[in-house]
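pipeline/complex-builder :: batch 7 item 3
reading input block
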Amino acid sequence: MSSVVANKRKIINDPVFGFISIPNDLVFDVLQHPYVQRLSRIRQLGLSNFVYPGAVHTRFLHSIGAMSLMQDAIAVLRQKGIEISHAESIAAQVAILLHDVGHGPFSHVLENTLVRGLSHEQVSLRMMQKINEQMQDKLSLAIQIFTDEYSRHFLHQLISSQLDVDRLDYLCRDSFFCGVSEGTVASARILKMLNVLDDRLVVESKGIYSIEKFLVARRLMYWQVYLHKTSVAAEQQLIYILRRAKDLAHKGQDLFASDALRFFLYEDVSATDFLTDDSVLDKYALLDDSDVLSAVKQWQNTGDVVLSTLSRGFTNRCLFKARMSESPLTEQERKELREQYARHFGIDEQQACYFFDEYSVSKDTYSPRDDSIDILFADGTTKDISQASDMLNLRMLTRRAVKHYLFYYKI
Amino acid sequence: MSSVVANKRKIINDPVFGFISIPNDLVFDVLQHPYVQRLSRIRQLGLSNFVYPGAVHTRFLHSIGAMSLMQDAIAVLRQKGIEISHAESIAAQVAILLHDVGHGPFSHVLENTLVRGLSHEQVSLRMMQKINEQMQDKLSLAIQIFTDEYSRHFLHQLISSQLDVDRLDYLCRDSFFCGVSEGTVASARILKMLNVLDDRLVVESKGIYSIEKFLVARRLMYWQVYLHKTSVAAEQQLIYILRRAKDLAHKGQDLFASDALRFFLYEDVSATDFLTDDSVLDKYALLDDSDVLSAVKQWQNTGDVVLSTLSRGFTNRCLFKARMSESPLTEQERKELREQYARHFGIDEQQACYFFDEYSVSKDTYSPRDDSIDILFADGTTKDISQASDMLNLRMLTRRAVKHYLFYYKI
Amino acid sequence: MSSVVANKRKIINDPVFGFISIPNDLVFDVLQHPYVQRLSRIRQLGLSNFVYPGAVHTRFLHSIGAMSLMQDAIAVLRQKGIEISHAESIAAQVAILLHDVGHGPFSHVLENTLVRGLSHEQVSLRMMQKINEQMQDKLSLAIQIFTDEYSRHFLHQLISSQLDVDRLDYLCRDSFFCGVSEGTVASARILKMLNVLDDRLVVESKGIYSIEKFLVARRLMYWQVYLHKTSVAAEQQLIYILRRAKDLAHKGQDLFASDALRFFLYEDVSATDFLTDDSVLDKYALLDDSDVLSAVKQWQNTGDVVLSTLSRGFTNRCLFKARMSESPLTEQERKELREQYARHFGIDEQQACYFFDEYSVSKDTYSPRDDSIDILFADGTTKDISQASDMLNLRMLTRRAVKHYLFYYKI
Amino acid sequence: MSSVVANKRKIINDPVFGFISIPNDLVFDVLQHPYVQRLSRIRQLGLSNFVYPGAVHTRFLHSIGAMSLMQDAIAVLRQKGIEISHAESIAAQVAILLHDVGHGPFSHVLENTLVRGLSHEQVSLRMMQKINEQMQDKLSLAIQIFTDEYSRHFLHQLISSQLDVDRLDYLCRDSFFCGVSEGTVASARILKMLNVLDDRLVVESKGIYSIEKFLVARRLMYWQVYLHKTSVAAEQQLIYILRRAKDLAHKGQDLFASDALRFFLYEDVSATDFLTDDSVLDKYALLDDSDVLSAVKQWQNTGDVVLSTLSRGFTNRCLFKARMSESPLTEQERKELREQYARHFGIDEQQACYFFDEYSVSKDTYSPRDDSIDILFADGTTKDISQASDMLNLRMLTRRAVKHYLFYYKI
């Protein structure tokens, strides 16, 4: 069936980048795979829409957008004389299309509750391998590029590095849907400045200011969107909800949940199970935002005070308050809070712990340790951006900014 | 609690219109009402994201955007000397904020399956009345304006007429999120041209070309987005899924569903029940997209061939094909199709009817019968746009365009 | 020298379409030709900036933008299997780059005063031939395409037809710089829908709504921008200024003017002179907006009442008033106006005629007589858009809209 | 006459900010003043269109845009409880409308050639005073605010400080017309964050990231646009052209020039003459881009080798080449260059100096010495942005970046 459809619908309309072409049948078949279609039911920014109500775009569209930037990047590099074969081009596109396929709904929340000890990157790789099996190994090169086992390192860097098309897409896209115009980065311009030297991605020196701007925009998006205290508060609340639900499940209480969600609530799944037992992966592949939202909504009416209170708050946007704090709570302060909530709700102090939390968020803007951004000068030499820019310097950029928060349920 | 929050968050960031201010506490409280928060889990365009993957924006943001245009419209009219009191201004904003509150998930689908015989307008009014009761009648003026029982007709027209802020918002917004730039209308410009004559909204004559453009953009959006054959096909498929689920429910089969969805699957609810029995409304107010999506996904694994086949297709984007046709199927053709599906799936011919459908969509661009667009000339006279424009003429605009489709499951 | 420069600057930054690439050295050399550089001193919209102060963009940028759309159009057609050779591609780009090269400053004004009887198209062709001589006949194919003498008609249609890239660029560009967002056409989308059938450009049928929208946008731009009464009034005023200056010149009065402008003021140049005498073309090729603006500014202080009054008004934006009228002035009314201005300025009635004018503007939206827009249906048949659209009809679209104005100097 | 016009045209269409309202008759009359209308013939970015062909916007539109931001800023401050009277509001708008009125064509060029020793700020003030005399002192408050002699300092800061509406407009506007999207600053967002503390403008602390972004965008615009080497090269070439013309004028040679330009070529005008002799100001007020462009174009055909060569190059975009250099030329190198050009053109070594130049450009991103950006924290304290930001630090921001160039005519 897919081949018929493939003929009919080769262009996707993206509000951010305009028309995006699906280059061939393989990419189309990958797009149609249930693992990928599932991303169309998972929001890219999880709970950010509590703050930015336009931010409801999906991981599906992000993946397609990143693929489109990959097409542009390859065209730019080819124009500069870097030879990239058709097979490499398609593989790089497939790899970026699938780079996030392992994400679950509210990924950060899930990794702290139902699927502990497992990163979405590991799941992505596992899923790619499964799709590869189903598609007669046509994804092998894509997987090699994804895992950086292919001989040409720069192709991997286009997928995962400080300047990869993943970041270029999500900064553009997230700022677009949030309405935070300041987060926009000039993707087209940055791509135009890319080059390859000794099998590594470099940025031509006239692109220095664009890179500075890119780093500042990214930083702004972190503090203004990704780590916005209200989003983080909502995440904490959802973490507590799922933890409480799991506790109750383990005590044998029957909770409303789809089969897929039920599995992860009632079973204890280890990272190993995940990577070895296909039935676990199959369950996971059925999860999306709707399972969680629908269950939490129904849990409003559960008998348990903790679960129903937090679920009702979550559903009706009565979220944890966030207060920035200089230092962690003292033992005494924690005790008082416990007592206060216990008294208010008529619950024990252990349950009272579900109504407040401490949290630290930290972010460094740029870390050359992991992977640098190399600037290429006219004389053929390169420097790391932290050396090349007279504005940015290493100390400043690598300094971790840390913020402490107290989250608590307003009573 | 809400008043505290109200102090903190009076500006909403909208990717379409920028910063939108919440004007006062009443509006904030309305925004926080569970009926309204629920709209943040209902997509404005239902299933259009199968075609336009960016089109996942919610009815919540549309309502806020329309409120913002109402603020602009009032400011324009006041500048032209039309007196509008503070109370009227707030009421008009509340009315537009709530104009769509009665929408359920996939509204058109629901009205054809679970809540037959009931329009979302009726539910909106019922919900407004309920909120009004809870808020000490502070919404009475808003409701009067909504129902056109208030003495000043033009305020109602701003909410519901050929040029209301509802339309101006959704055309802008839907085209923005779909990435169909041609659907954009110049809302700001059109609002600048509004005036009031004899208690009716009129458009100043220099706005004629903008109105022509507005009508053409609307028409384009209808055919290119709202009535796109793939969206309509997906809707038909979902209608069949829910009808089959309801059939099975009535036969006593146990299907996965949230309590709210279960209620409408297993009970037969009449329009009267809805408007008289608060418990029915309460159930309805718990429904959103997640209930439907989550259930359909799980129904993939139901024993029933019809339900599982259609649900699996819906979840994995294997949708009904649509073929435009000149004329309806003959009885003979219908019979052959029934036999074909019956044979293929090993089901009876009655069940086979779930795999194809005929459908006609029709739309007239502009109908002065319902409500005209009056153009105000410098000499104080007015003409209907179909008279005032030398391009548009009544016959053309009021001609209904009709398209016939055959939808069928590809085997 | 140019080849060195060519290496350095192959990308132009266009606020409308983003990065535009200069494809090869020939195109670069054409861009650097003095005839083309001159377009960077000629505003695309003449005097429209009196109404839309942002509309100061030049014919130079329009030419480059149109070239960019030509690149896109060729890419689309090649993707659909239409073979277009490299030589044809470059020639088409050169042809569109030069399609307006014959424009003088305030083209419409000049054609009514200093260079009567000569269209800018004729001058464009003459200039192309001159450049061709200087560039060893490298432009011969471009000229053939421009004049429709090349065997492949559709290439000419891309340059000059109802849907040429000239129109697509200027509608986008003019609406962008004017800030009239409603005039924008979805160039990218329309180009995607182009195809070639029997050597003619056609639009695929799913593009019908875009074409409708294009025609309406064009119509809107005509009435709201190109034929805006204040721009037309300013044009009329400039026509009168130049006519008066020419009269005075012929009477032997010494007026400030650059050599190039002086030539056309003091000599009577026929169309034949133009096309046969290279020295006339050389003079013309030196004219740009600055000659006219600078001269008119200085003529404020001329002794002649007519010339100084109109020039002072023009320089300080005291323009002719425009009043729409149903019918032409009667002989009696004309006489009264003449007497009034004669009395006011102490001039004779012949001179008084310089202070008012009548003018009719007319425009038909679409005329299939000249060149149709053919819609291609799935079954391979074509229909003219006026037949294919259920909204537009021939009678309506071909009806000429006419408006009469009286322009007069306010005293 | 103007009052009549005032009634008719109170809204200006700006491609950057949309509709801009002229608030009252005084502002309209100021807009219509010949000093201000003259700005519509002076390009905001001088010669930047040699690099960015879209950058032909005028100082007129910039002034109007800045006025529009002033309206927004005042509305924001009033909403926060800062009382600003109607008279203050109008005065602030008039002051910003006139803040650049003293600019001549190619301001930097002129200040280095024809009007040495005089800043455009001084001329702006002088012109404001003249307009004030003509308008019955209605501009007195505006002038006080402009010169910071009014009691409320923050009103002056809105016109002239690190975060004034002048900068906010020109960064937005210049990046828009250049097509350098990275230079855009979120003016609307920054304005929303303004407040007044102790009569000084401050930025609320949640605006820190926006301010960081603003500083980085400004820095990018400096190096990518304002100090782009090709623009600077073109400026140097024009400086040499005017110097050579002045030399020839002083030697008694007759050169083509409008009366206004002629005056400054043939007379030696001191700064004192300017501020004391109204006839000098009157001449200056007649100068605009067209006088310079038209004259240089004609000087192509002058007998003088230096003037004709440089003028021909300027007119046909054969500009000085720019080469970045580490150190200044040695005396020996300068000598060799002089000899080379002298030989090539058959001129003496003094004239040969007109064909090359050295130039240093420097820029600090932010200098708290001049005027700081104060960040207001929730506890009521303020810090300078260089203290408040964990990314920016004083040392880095105040470090002057310097670049040396050699400019030379390519032979």
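note: The first strand of chain B starts at residue 11 and ends at 14.
queue -> next item
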